[in-house]
């Protein structure tokens, strides 16, 4: 999409990172989103160091996407982000370090609201301005009232809208919520942004969060070309391509 920033959700453990970076540049992408669940293990910190080193002389950037399912310890997020936002290879939007989130729209941990918790415990404690682009489609009343509930957000990322809703069964993907969220971002001179998601399919077979098993398949078939057409029609501010995610999950 000419004139639109396009990112790729990227896992830091990929041993072929250098080739992946060049392939992404050749494809016309702008940055990799580093889906971060482990900020402290030696393999994770070494992978981050390697990626930022490899990308130093490339016309390409990296940014963090915090995975709140993997850890809710915000002190790890804050220190990890602080370690790299001054790096020349860290992606910026509107001259601000770009920080994304996977889930977390219901976290409040005793604060008056999720918005207040994210502001007080994460954004303010970073000690610097960032461009905050969360995937909070699990938030209460997610929709055209989102930015009223989350003024802390500079934009919003619609992860789940990449595929049909699980409970809807075998149906085609739509762009209804994408259009609603883009309109909400641009309404009343807010100056917010909407990042749309693109993916083929979603397969998941792994332990859940309540001693259950997540086991589902969100169909592919025509999902990718249909979503590409919807992206052209909705014309979002940004696009993120969702790729392989967790050990028991594929895109």
Which features characterize this protein?
single chain, 251 residues, alpha/beta, 9-stranded mixed β-sheet, 3-stranded antiparallel β-sheet, 29% helix
Shape: globular
Helix-strand pattern, N to C?
A: EHEHEHEEHEHEHEEEHEE
How far apart, in Å, are the first and last alpha carbons? 21 Å
Strand content of the residues, in percent?
15-25%
Q: Tell me the radius of gyration.
A: 17 Å
By helix and strand content, what is the structural category?
A: alpha/beta
Low-confidence stretches: none
The number of helical runs is 7
Question: Main sheet?
Answer: 9 strands, mixed
Q: Percent range for helical residues?
A: 25-40%
Average per-residue pLDDT, rounded, comes to 86
What's the number of extended β-strand segments?
12
Oligomer: single chain
Report on the architecture of this protein.
With 251 residues, the chain is α/β, with parallel strands linked by helices. The protein is 29% helix and 24% strand. It contains seven helices and twelve strands. It has helices spanning 17-27, 42-54, 74-82, 114-126, 146-149, 176-186, 223-234, and strands spanning 5-10, 31-36, 61-67, 92-93, 96-102, 131-135, 155-158, 193-198, 202-207, 213-218, 238-241, 249-250. Strands 1, 2, 3, 4, 5, 6, 7, 8 and 11 form a nine-stranded mixed sheet that branches. Strands 10-9-12 form a three-stranded antiparallel sheet, with no helix packed on it. Strand 9 and strand 10 (213-218) form a beta hairpin. Helix 3 packs parallel to helix 4. The mean pLDDT is 86.
